[in-house]
Write a structure and sequence with these properties.
The complex is a heterodimer of chains A (383) and B (439).
Chain A: E1 4-9, H1 29-41, E2 46-49, H2 76-83, E3 91-97, H3 103-116, E4 122-126, H4 131-134, H5 156-177, E5 184-187, E6 192-194, E7 204-205, E8 210-211, E9 226-230, H6 234-243, E10 246-249, H7 254-267, E11 272-281, H8 285-296, E12 305-309, H9 311-323, E13 328-333, H10 338-353, H11 366-369
Parallel strand pairs in A: 1-2, 1-13, 2-3, 3-4, 4-9, 9-10, 10-11, 11-12, 11-13
Antiparallel strand pairs in A: 5-6, 7-8
Chain B: E1 7-11, H1 32-44, E2 49-52, E3 60-61, E4 64-65, H2 76-83, E5 91-97, H3 103-116, E6 121-126, H4 131-134, H5 145-163, E7 171-174, E8 179-181, E9 189-192, E10 197-200, E11 213-216, H6 221-230, E12 233-236, H7 241-254, E13 266-275, H8 279-293, H9 296-307, E14 332-333, H10 341-355, H11 359-366, E15 371-374, H12 376-388, E16 394-397, H13 407-419, H14 432-435
Parallel strand pairs in B: 1-2, 1-16, 2-5, 5-6, 6-11, 11-12, 12-13, 13-15, 13-16
Antiparallel strand pairs in B: 3-4, 3-14, 7-8, 9-10
Chain lengths: 383, 439
């Protein structure tokens, strides 16, 4: 069985000083086009695109006033759409926040991404707990995030945000199904464009919002675009298990990988488990990372494990974690495009040597690449 | 005196009966290929921009989804961003509601589109808001007309504040000194108004156009005032010559109050067209298109919107019924409401009586908009004349077929406008502001 491989794209790479070692212009379409076409040449399953409703910061909440790191990002859904016509097989998984956005708009935006990409859309659903981002909307007042808090589940504010995220995904899934596949009939004889018995109200009413439906957009090519979530603890595991098709977890060793897989698997037998790793690749990887750390004035810190080494060594780690039950990996390149090219031109060949990575794309949709069937609409009557 | 230059845009065929789907040439309203076809045709003709409409709830008649017209469309800005990848110069205009969006998020999406298209983004600001549409949104509810425009004006002002908040030279990306953003170059935004409270910093550098082009499509007094104060382009239904001249004069006159020059607001009525090799053939084509647009059931559906009751028992090819409109709540949801239905019914009845029209003929007569009908030469002349007579600065062309409805216009009419010296032979600038001469 093939091992799934994705890359997470953000700015000039995941090291905050990465921009100093690359000619990348993170605010040009050309930069992103080059990255995603490279990822597709490497036959990767998908790329994710980071996003947030506020500037980047080294602080958990609020501005850090640093001028030596990349600040600013494009809206990830629009960026993914901009890249869709330039590619034909690779999945496109933008981040969209569930907290301050309208679930209806997000659902229709992702459905549209699926239409313009011919069935390659995903969505990384993310909460925004930051008080600084809430002030960009002025609708809700959030307590400042406590960076010392270890137990997310104990914080009722955070619990609510995950409950709201689960509702947002539920609304999206209902809206995507709200047009049955054969709703459009174009029946000239009766003058009817659609069979309105095949359009359905979503009729969602929850604690945070209600959405009537149906969607304004016909059912996306995949039926259900792929929903993904990053999760580090029990509460987000529960959100992912209940709402997502793919979860990104962050073990730091194969023992931890085994434990996380066991915990997530107990919550869902279906979900695809991907592990995140920040990667600096090549013979001189450790030296490159050290140089960047020095430029940044601090050793790189990350929620995910940080790997430095050759692609051969990385392949060994991935195979080890795979034996622990991890089905795929979302690699976060330390520097773009350098570490991405080591993945697409080196790591994939290495994995192919072990017989665990594709030699050609075997499907035209993201669900197809992930081995997920195309589901019938929940509203379709079984005949 | 030099002749005014004509501005032209292409409207992607929408979800009302202007779009004919019963024609065998009618293609998908949702496949990306349809959008690519129309956008590339418009760009081949060197048109100013492509225009996408919006509707946030499917229209209903008598409590059920209206099934006679095209139904279903994508999210505007997402499709436009994808189109930015397959076009180079064409402006990309999306309609986005101010009632069901928040300024920080939408300003960011519009700035993203402007960056990703190298300066071709436009935003058609609409305020359509009723409880029916609100059922799809957190905000829900209804805003009265005055509040809607107040909210829209505050929304646009705040968006521009966000777009301006990074100094043009904010991104240094100086690898030698390690300065990515210049110190102090990203301004704080602190806004407290009647509708919005936004405090913090924007997440994008100033975009290529600085401000994406703002389009306004309302027609009320408040709408016109809003346009005079805030808009770069008006999309109006006033396409007929005399009506257009009155509208044009009225709106341009309002500009001075805001310290603006007449050329800073372009007036572009939405119009349809029908071509033929002779004027007679064009007239026949125009009539045939109207009959396709107003089929028997569509004629009855229009009647029901005015009468506010079920009229399905009446023969669309027969005379208007004697009954009066139901004064109670209407049967139509998700469209601009008809204000005085009894008066409209009386007017329709008088017209039908005077001209001896059937229900369907009447609806064909009263629901048409300005249509340029004729040979390509005649249509080019009519367009030019409307613009030189100050009835418009140009037109938003609404083809009746998806996606090929603009092909013949671009192939046959545009070259003649060019021969008349009133339309560009090629783009001379890179941004939509350049095309619209909004500098």
């Amino acid at each position: 069985m093939t091992l799934h491989l994705a890359v997470a794209l953000d700015g000039a790479g995941w090291h905050p000083a990465a921009w100093r070692e690359t000619s990348a212009d993170v605010f040009s379409a050309r930069h992103w086009a080059a990255l995603v076409t490279e990822a597709e040449r490497g036959l990767l399953d998908f790329v994710t695109i980071e996003d947030a409703l506020g500037p980047q910061s080294t602080l958990p909440d609020g501005l850090d006033e640093r001028t030596d790191q990349v600040r600013g990002r494009f809206d990830a859904v629009l960026l993914a759409a901009r890249l869709a016509p330039l590619t034909s097989r690779i999945g496109l998984v933008p981040t969209a926040t569930t907290t301050h956005t309208e679930p209806f708009h997000v659902a229709v935006g992702i459905a549209t991404l699926d239409h313009v990409s011919g069935g390659r859309a995903g969505w990384r659903a993310q909460i925004s707990a930051r008080a600084s981002e809430a002030r960009h909307f002025g609708r809700r007042r959030f307590p400042p995030l406590d960076p010392g808090a270890r137990d997310l589940a104990a914080d009722p504010h955070v619990r609510d945000l995950f409950a709201e995220a689960a509702d947002a995904v539920e609304v999206a899934r209902r809206l995507w199904d709200s047009w049955e596949d054969d709703a459009e009939i174009r029946d000239v004889a009766t003058g009817r464009f659609i069979d309105r018995d095949k359009l359905h109200y979503a009729d969602f009413a929850g604690r945070f919002f209600s959405v009537k439906g149906p969607s304004i957009t016909p059912r996306p090519p995949q039926g259900q675009p792929v929903v993904t979530a990053l999760a580090h603890a029990r509460l987000p595991y529960e959100f992912a298990a209940g709402s997502a098709d793919v979860v990104y977890v962050t073990p730091h060793s194969d023992e931890q990988a085994r434990a996380v897989v066991e915990e997530v698997r107990a919550l869902s037998g279906e979900i695809k488990i991907f592990a995140d790793l920040v990667v600096f690749l090549g013979e001189d990887a450790a030296r490159r990372k050290a140089r960047l750390d020095e430029l940044d004035g601090a050793e790189l810190a990350s929620d995910a494990a940080i790997f430095t080494g050759t692609v051969r060594e990385l392949a060994d780690v991935l195979l080890e974690w795979r034996r622990a039950g991890v089905q795929g990996f979302r690699l976060r390149p330390g520097v773009l495009p350098y570490d991405l090219e080591r993945i697409t031109r080196g790591l994939t060949a290495e994995l192919r040597g072990h017989g665990v990575f594709r030699r050609a794309y075997e499907a035209t949709t993201l669900r197809g690449l992930l081995g997920l069937p195309r589901p019938a609409s929940r509203y379709a009557e079984v005949s | 005196m030099t002749r005014k230059r004509v501005h032209l845009a292409a409207h992607f065929p929408g979800v009302n009966n202007t779009t004919v789907w019963t024609d065998p040439r009618s293609g998908s309203q949702i496949d990306f290929a349809s959008f690519v076809h129309l956008a590339r045709t418009a760009e081949r003709g060197k048109l100013d921009f492509l225009f996408l409409a919006e509707g946030l709830r499917l229209r209903e008649l008598k409590g059920r989804v209206h099934d006679l017209d095209v139904v279903g469309r994508p999210e505007s800005l997402t499709v436009l961003s994808a189109l930015a990848a397959v076009t180079d110069r064409l402006g990309l205009a999306g309609t986005v509601n101010t009632t069901y969006n928040e300024p920080y998020e939408l300003a960011r999406r519009l700035s993203t589109l402007d960056h990703l298209s190298d300066g071709r983004a436009a935003w058609n600001v609409v305020t359509t808001s009723d409880a029916f549409t609100g059922e799809n949104f957190r905000r829900g509810g209804y805003l009265d007309r005055a509040d809607r425009y107040e909210r829209a004006a505050e929304f646009v002002r705040l968006s521009r504040e966000l777009w301006d908040s990074w100094r043009p030279d904010a991104v240094a990306a100086d690898r030698e000194t390690g300065t990515f953003v210049r110190p102090g170059a990203i301004g704080d935004v602190g806004h407290r108004g009647a509708h919005f409270s936004v405090e913090g910093r924007f997440t994008l550098p100033r975009s290529p156009q600085g401000h994406p082009v703002v389009i306004q499509a309302g027609d009320s007094d408040e709408g016109r005032e809003f346009a005079a104060a805030h808009a770069d382009v008006i999309f109006t239904p006033h396409g007929r010559l005399e009506d257009g001249r009155r509208f044009y004069a009225d709106v341009k006159r309002r500009l001075a109050r805001y310290g603006r020059e007449p050329h800073q607001l372009k007036i572009m009525p939405g119009v349809t067209f029908a071509l033929g090799d002779t004027d007679e053939e064009a007239a026949e084509n125009a009539a045939a298109i109207r009959r396709q647009q107003v089929g028997p059931r569509t004629a009855i559906a229009f009647l029901e919107q005015v009468w506010g009751r079920d009229m399905s028992a009446y023969d669309p090819e027969g005379p208007l019924p004697d009954i009066e409109p139901d004064p109670a709540e209407g049967v139509s949801q998700g469209r601009v409401p008809i204000k005085d239905r009894a008066a409209v019914a009386a007017k329709w009845r008088a017209l039908a009586g005077e001209k001896g029209l059937s229900i369907r003929e009447l609806v064909i007569e009263v629901t048409g908009r300005q249509t340029f009908v004729g040979t390509p030469g005649s249509v080019a002349r009519q367009i030019d004349e409307h613009v030189q007579a100050d009835a418009a600065d140009g037109f938003i062309l609404v083809p009746h077929l998806t996606p090929g409805g603009l092909d013949e216009f671009v192939d046959r009419v545009v070259p003649l406008l060019r021969e008349r010296g009133v339309f560009r032979a090629d783009y001379t600038g890179a941004t939509l502001r350049d095309h619209l001469e909004l500098t």
